[in-house]
Amino acid sequence: KTTKADPTDPECNLFNLYLDEYDTKWTSQINRLDYLVISSGHWFYRPVIFYENETISGCQYCALPNTTQLPLYYGYTKALRTSLRAILENFKGLAFLRSFSPQHFEGGPWDKGGDCVRTRPYRRNETIPEGADLKIHDIQVEEFRAAEEEMKKKQGLRLRLMDTTQAMLLRPDGHPGRYGHMQTAA
């Protein structure tokens, strides 16, 4: 479940993320679906205040006083686990977890002048960058396996992992390059 930290400020890019709560906007409609795809990851690279048990447990990419700075992996793991639990408890159809598509920015991160200018997939003799994105993939596989064990106890739900990370790692030409930035960005 997420909300804007200040919904009255259109410039506010800080979000509240309730790591142990379902978002009823989608869980209330989940039984109407035959298929469900979870495709997440990049959204979590933003300033976020984490809540657990209705209390702030920390934040990432924020400068709030007296607030513990937590890594992206902390919030992502818990949010994915909560989402998978909502599916296991409320869904009867076929669910897919699509794995993370790595970024390929060179020369810095996307918001600091990084760009993806490649026009073809990597070749065998080229070095493929590794980094934080692959840790997101590892978290997804680990949480999928745990949910899969829980699913075996439940009749009716089918859960599949659509692991596209390796294929997308080879395809930097699929990224928007300079077009992924706001028009006003350098």
Automatic annotation (TrEMBL):
Record-annotated Trichome birefringence-like C-terminal domain positions: 6-184
Gene Ontology MF terms in the entry: O-acetyltransferase activity
CC terms in the record's Gene Ontology section: Golgi apparatus
Pfam families membership: PC-Esterase
Protein origin, superkingdom: Eukaryota
Transmembrane segments: none
Record family assignment: Belongs to the PC-esterase family. TBL subfamily.
Protein name as annotated: Trichome birefringence-like protein 21
Organism: Raphanus sativus var. raphanistroides
